[in-house]
Amino acid sequence: MAKKSKIARNIQRQQMVAQQAERRAELKAIISNPDTPFEEKLVARDTLNAMKVNGSPVRLRNRDRLNGRPRGHIGFAGLSRVTFRELAHKGELPGITKSSW
């Protein structure tokens, strides 16, 4: 089980990313548009750099939804490989069967 503080920090980052996503996309569009004047690009770049770092999606960590484990994340299930295996063996994941050939 991950530390509660690490899980809470990641949740706060998710909320901040959701709040700032639209504004960040606007600024990045201004910066990448070749028709935008250079001075406006500089202002947009400085504004983007002044925003909080934790608002960037790069700062997020995929964690297990049940216990917060940060490694071995299986994306479609939202679980770590360890939790996924345990729940699959118990039959608690619908549609998941053990392969045999």
Task: Describe the overall structure.
- With 101 residues, the chain is mainly α.
- It is elongated.
- A two-stranded antiparallel sheet has the order 1-2.
- Helix content is 51%, strand content 4%.
- β1 and β2 form a beta hairpin.
- The chain is built from 3 helices and 2 strands.
- The chain has helices at residues 4-32, 38-50, 81-90, and strands at 73-74, 79-80.
- The model has no long low-confidence stretch (mean pLDDT 94).
- It folds into 2 domains: 1-61, Orthogonal Bundle (Helix Hairpins), CATH 1.10.287; 63-96, no CATH class.
- The two termini are 34 Å apart.
State the end-to-end CA separation: 34 Å
Question: What Rg, in angstroms, do the CA atoms define?
Answer: 20 Å
How many strand units?
A: 2
Main sheet properties: 2 strands, antiparallel
Sum up the overall morphology in one term.
Answer: elongated
Helix count equals: 3
CATH class of the largest domain: Mainly Alpha
Q: What structural class do you assign from the helix and strand content?
A: mainly alpha
Poorly predicted regions are: none
Strand order in the largest sheet: 1-2
Average pLDDT metric:
94
InterPro entries: Ribosomal_uS14 (IPR001209), Ribosomal_uS14_bac/plastid (IPR023036)
Function: Binds 16S rRNA, required for the assembly of 30S particles and may also be responsible for determining the conformation of the 16S rRNA at the A site.
Organism: Euzebya pacifica
Subunit structure: Part of the 30S ribosomal subunit. Contacts proteins S3 and S10.
